[in-house]
Design a protein that fits this description.
Two copies of one chain form a homodimer. Chain A is of the alpha/beta class and 406 residues long. Chain A is built from twelve helices and 17 strands. In chain A, strands 2-10-9-8-7-3-6 form a seven-stranded mixed beta sheet, sandwiched between helices. Chain A has a four-stranded antiparallel beta sheet with strand order 13-14-17-16. A two-stranded parallel ribbon of chain A has the order 1-15. The longest helix of chain A is centred in the last third of the chain and has 27 residues. The termini of chain A are far apart.
Chain lengths: 406, 406
């Protein structure tokens, strides 16, 4: 008799963003005239840059002729894209990463939920708290997290690393030794960053205890300060302890285009086992490559025109971030993030819980954000706003929030 | 200390098509003048149909303007595509499947390797022998298949259902009761089919023993005979025992475009657990939707122009299939398949093994096919040729094979 995967049943409630979507739909239905501004989900709003549009049209034309038509892509990605990534994201920053260490995929969400699969179920994970829910949930589904305590909203076999105002939203080395360490900088949801010296401490620690760092650098394009690393491979020794996950969603507006990549250095091992070979095997067996058309769009991200256009696009969103940060700060809110990241991390006023503040903003000023508690217990009383809206909506949302009388 | 997933290490050798690729590359390097014809991997060669090209260009233009730009897609697929699938692939065939039972993905390979994840590791799988390697390998990686016997090339905890000339390459109901039954018709690799009455027996059996059928119908567009079912939901009772996996790769030439879907009826359960909800949760947590551009291309597959153009494209490949089938049969080979499927299943002459015949064809006539033994022990002494080449190459390959003196 067939049985379901019980681990799935352990997941509490529904995914954070589904709950937000449901609440917003219900409010909209009851208040059809409300002009709701969404600064919740980190979805981009600016159109694709002209260089990317040109590349897409060109690739579509190639698919229309027998001579240039492309069938199955190479398992790990087209050489042209892997070379562009290696040159621009790594060699140009002095990182020793080669094209054949880059695995092209349809996005960082898939990669960061699938990567746990090449590790033993006995391995213990450490995550920041608050944290992007996918890291934990994908491990719950695999059966790696023990039992859930609804009161503390934590899993028995997960090591939580609180990121709070006290530690400037940068985690401290955990007391209990983990096997897999999820780090994301610039951070989602807090918008915080760590310096290269701080990241070096993590690399040294991982090498010392034999752990692997899963480094999510999806937001690196938003870094504006010099001492913040864009890649973990800027740190010495990272090749023996780190996997890096990258996305085109936020630097190039690809949330609906779907492209990302994972870097696994060839010498990276778990015990005697080479992890590059394992991930290659997973790609070969369970994946069929990102579409040729989309990989050509990815290549255009690294063209001279593409780079210039995307620099402007990132600047557009960071201008929004500055408007949110400055506006709310001047109105007396406690805010952080927003300098090297498109996220602003806001303390809910008057000791409101995150969901109370969510409901308050939705119903009083029709602004949607993301409750910090949805990212973990240490996110309680916090709230995430994103800079990915249009400038006009961002200004209006901030002005509405500033007017509330708390 | 971090540990790897040991299940990965149990996988014998490398993936079938990687080995073929390596052999062909080595032969090419040593014989640069050889004009190699590839009828091995089931990759298409005809360009995308004009209706699809138009849809792609149109969607790219939408991504270029703020008003029509699309960010994250709905988790389970855009309504326009799910509706087109429900109407054309199901309602038009009298199958009771609704749009919200359809999960759009980036292809059937991902779906058929990921689907096992929503089931218990205690579940026992049954597969045809020979079989598409991904069904078994994805279960090996999950740890569901026991130990491997290199001598028999079988796993201790997998139920094999031999498909041989004696049973006309149609599996018989297994003696041991499985929990999950993988079926693929029209079949890859044998090109065989079963009638609706035969499939109804499987549905009745699954409902009786409480098993779930994972029905891979990736090749349904190639069905030419009236009594061969296009969907398992043509059978009565399939809604309580079957998940169907479908692809756009072979009916629309999307091998490099990447689009597929999975159907899970809402009442389908494993014990008390609703499987539709479980798969939805997996999509929401570990996937971010197929690209908008690609989903618009999928919609065009169902337009009047698209349907007419793709009917011609399928006819082109089936003309190849007929040429291969007739040509090799007239030359004295034992052949099957090719009537409702783009695959011809060929007995290697003179009791050669599959790989011996592979090497013989590669080195003597520079034709690449797929060794049947790569699909399982009952595939030994067989060989798969695909109809997805160009007509010119297909004719030349067959003519070369006919001339060999065995």
């Amino acid at each position: 008799m067939v049985k379901a995967n019980d681990n799935y049943l352990k997941l509490p409630g529904s995914y954070l963003f589904s709950t937000i979507g449901k609440k917003v739909r219900e409010y909209s239905a009851a208040n059809p005239d409300a002009k709701i501004i969404r600064l919740g989900i980190g979805d981009v709003t600016q159109p694709l840059a002209p260089a990317i549009i040109d590349a897409l049209h060109g690739a579509v034309d190639e698919m229309a002729a027998r001579e240039t038509f492309k069938g199955y892509a190479p398992d790990l990605g087209y050489e042209f894209l892997r070379n562009a990534i290696a040159d621009n994201d790594y060699k140009a920053r002095g990182c020793d990463i080669t094209a054949d260490e880059i695995f092209v995929s349809d996005g960082a969400k898939c990669d960061c939920s699938n990567i746990q699969e090449i590790f033993s179920l006995d391995n213990k994970i450490a995550v920041c708290d608050p944290v992007y829910p996918v890291y934990v949930d994908s491990n719950v589904m695999a059966g790696r997290t023990g039992t859930y305590d609804a009161k503390t909203e934590t899993w028995s076999d997960v090591i939580y690393m609180p990121c709070t105002a006290e530690n400037n939203f940068a985690p401290e080395l955990p007391k209990e030794t983990p096997d897999l360490i999820y780090l994301c900088f610039p951070n989602n949801p807090t918008g915080s960053t760590i310096t290269k010296a701080q990241l070096q401490e993590w690399v040294d620690y991982a090498n010392k205890v034999g752990a692997i760092i899963l480094y999510d650098a999806a937001y690196e394009a938003y870094i504006s300060e010099a001492d913040v690393p864009h890649s973990i491979y800027e740190c010495e020794g990272a090749r023996t302890c780190a996997i890096e996950l990258r996305s085109f969603s936020k630097n190039a507006g690809f949330t609906g285009v779907r492209l990302g990549f994972t870097v696994i250095p060839k010498e990276l091992k778990a015990g005697d086992v080479n992890l590059h070979a394992l991930w290659a095997r997973r790609h070969g067996t369970k994946y069929n490559g990102a579409p040729y058309i989309i990989q050509k769009a990815g290549e255009a991200v690294y063209s001279e025109a593409g780079k210039a256009q995307l620099k402007q696009q990132v600047a557009y969103y960071m201008n929004n971030a500055k408007y949110i940060y400055d506006g709310l700060k001047s109105a007396g809110f406690t805010v952080s993030g927003g300098v090297n990241a498109p996220y602003i991390w806001l303390k809910a006023p008057n000791n409101m819980t995150s969901w109370e503040f969510f409901d308050y903003l939705l119903t009083n000023v029709n602004v949607v954000g993301t409750p910090g508690s949805g990212f973990g217990p240490s996110g309680e009383h916090y709230f995430r706003l994103t800079a990915f809206g249009t400038y006009e909506n961002t200004v209006e949302a901030v002005d509405r929030i500033k007017k509330i009388n708390l």
